[in-house]
Amino acid sequence: MVDFRETGRLGCAACYDTFSASLRTLLRRIHGASQHMGRLYTAPGAPNTPTGEALRALREQLRHAIEAEDFERAAQLRDSIRGAE
């Protein structure tokens, strides 16, 4: 566990089992939960990844949403763009 504190990395897959109780407590303290609650990683070039043209379209929609002062939609579009980049 000393190596983990210094580097932030575990040594091997068995370390997750060995230190599971300590890691669970640490994750709860840092993130508020010990289970993943965010978005899943999508590899670049994955089928669901928007193309350059799709990103341009999203940016154009974002611009229109801002002009129309539809800030909720603008925030959703901004998050979609960030997730795609």
The total beta strand count reads 0
In angstroms, what is the radius of gyration? 20 Å
Strand content: under 5%
The number of distinct structural domains comes to 2
The main β sheet shows up as: none
> Can you give the helix content as a percent range?
55-70%
Structure description:
The chain is mainly α. It folds into 2 domains: 30 residues, no CATH class; 33 residues. The protein is built from 5 helices and no strands. Helix 4 packs antiparallel against helix 5. It starts with a helix and ends with a helix. The relative contact order is 0.08. The mean pLDDT is 79.
In short:
The protein is 64% helix and 0% strand.
List keywords for this structure.
2 domains, elongated
